[in-house]
């Protein structure tokens, strides 16, 4: 038989539970309000955040060149300015080299379009297939659309290169922020590391090192590969006798900067010009063969060698990152997608190592059979 509890016994428990529940609800509401306020404030200053992120990316990208000059007794601030001048000269140089010859070449191609089509019809084999599949008519249509396609490509190049200089205030802000990040970035990071426990500081150092290696390795590797692609294109076009080979090679190198699809898009554009400006079909066959062979060599030999272990992303992640970047920022987003994805992967990798230390791979150069303390610096 259950007896009633004495007066005052056990009566405080429901009240305590109510108080704890109210306190928990209040804490959740305050946290949610704080998160919402932070997100709203971030939305209000989204332009500034974007400028800082671009400056941070740019700082990491040019840091190897600045460090190289710094090791050769060049003052660090002078080294940064020299790198700025080199980049600006390269951008304006590309614009001056590629745009005038490309416009002149398009005008020449459009003027001589009928002559090129008649020369193609003089080939008996081509004439047989042309009567059946109307190839000449389709090529003429593509050639008529070529000026608009090249104009769009030139507009994209202008937006990414020369067009950037139209927004002087934002550009100046990015350059100033980048200057101080490159000049004093290490001291700022060390100050931050000293504010957290040593174990966490070691994790942050590892993440920062992985992100720096990924971004600088990708930027340098992509630049080298694009230059090599432009050289291969230039030599090929010279061999098959295509006029204005230099601007077309530079244009192809620029398209090759875009991961996965850039070389294909540039190859199609150059192929249309080759079909009319070179000996058909020999010139087009040579160009297609060189394009396919070069893409295989680039994807399987050059990229793994140049990028090394700095950028190791699954192709599915690369495709998704490019689509997201292109949807957000267009061509510029596609160019930045891979290093940003590599940076995110570095953070995820560190979290995985922290949550699953038993499954973490051994450090580079470590002996799997013995543990030894790492030597400092």
Name the features.
377 residues, mainly alpha, single chain
Helix-residue proportion: over 70%
Query: Number of domains in the coordinates?
Result: 1
Q: Which descriptor suits the 3D outline?
A: elongated
Derived from helix and strand composition plus strand pairing, the structural class reads: mainly alpha
- Biggest β-sheet strands, sense, barrel: none
Oligomer: single chain
Strand content: under 5%
Number of helices: 13
Radius of gyration: 29 Å
Number of strands: 0
* Overall average residue pLDDT: 76
Elements, N to C (H/E): HHHHHHHHHHHHH
The N- to C-terminal Cα distance equals 77 Å
**Which residue ranges are poorly predicted, with pLDDT under 50 across at least 5 consecutive positions?**
365-377
Describe this entry's structure for a reader.
The longest helix is centred in the middle third of the chain and has 42 residues, at 198-239. α3 runs antiparallel to α6 (135-160) and α10 runs antiparallel to α11 (282-307). By secondary structure, the chain is mainly alpha-helical. It has helices at residues 12-44, 46-71, 76-111, 113-121, 124-133, 135-160, 168-193, 198-239, 245-256, 262-277, 282-307, 315-329, 331-355. It contains 13 helices and no strands. The model is unreliable at 365-377 (pLDDT under 50). It has one domain. The termini are far apart. It is elongated, with a radius of gyration of 29 Å.
């Amino acid at each position: 038989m259950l007896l009633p509890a004495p007066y005052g016994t056990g009566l405080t428990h429901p009240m305590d539970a109510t108080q704890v529940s109210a306190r928990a609800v209040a804490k959740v509401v305050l946290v949610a309000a704080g998160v919402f306020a932070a997100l709203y404030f971030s939305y209000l200053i989204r332009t500034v955040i974007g400028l800082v992120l671009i400056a941070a990316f740019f700082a990491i990208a040019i840091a190897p060149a600045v460090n190289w000059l710094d090791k050769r007794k060049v003052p660090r601030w002078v080294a940064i300015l020299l790198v700025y001048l080199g980049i600006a000269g390269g951008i304006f140089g590309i614009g001056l080299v590629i745009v005038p010859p490309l416009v002149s070449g398009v005008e020449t191609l459009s003027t001589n379009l009928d002559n090129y089509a008649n020369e193609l019809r003089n080939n008996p084999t081509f004439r047989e297939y042309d009567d059946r599949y109307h190839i000449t008519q389709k090529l003429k249509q593509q050639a008529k659309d070529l000026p608009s396609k090249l104009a769009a490509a030139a507009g994209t190049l202008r937006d990414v290169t020369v067009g950037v200089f139209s927004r002087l205030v934002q550009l100046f802000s990015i350059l100033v922020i980048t200057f101080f990040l490159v000049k004093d970035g290490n001291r700022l990071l060390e100050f931050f590391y000293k504010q957290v426990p040593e174990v966490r500081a070691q994790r942050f150092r590892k993440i920062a090192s992985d992100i720096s290696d990924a971004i600088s390795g990708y930027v340098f590797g992509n630049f080298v590969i694009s230059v090599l692609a432009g050289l291969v294109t230039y030599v090929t076009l010279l061999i098959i006798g295509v006029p204005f080979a230099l601007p077309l090679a530079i244009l192809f190198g620029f398209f090759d900067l875009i991961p996965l699809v850039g070389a294909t898009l540039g190859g199609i554009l150059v192929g249309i010009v080759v079909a009319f400006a070179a000996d058909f079909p020999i010139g087009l066959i040579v160009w297609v063969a060189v394009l396919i062979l070069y893409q295989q060599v680039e994807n399987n030999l050059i990229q793994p060698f140049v990028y090394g272990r700095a950028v190791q992303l699954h192709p599915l992640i690369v495709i998704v990152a490019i689509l997201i970047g292109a949807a957000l920022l267009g061509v510029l987003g596609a160019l930045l997608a891979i290093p940003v994805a590599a940076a995110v992967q570095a953070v995820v990798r560190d979290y995985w190592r922290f949550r699953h230390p038993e499954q973490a791979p051994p450090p580079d150069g470590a002996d799997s059979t013995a543990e030894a303390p790492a030597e400092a610096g």
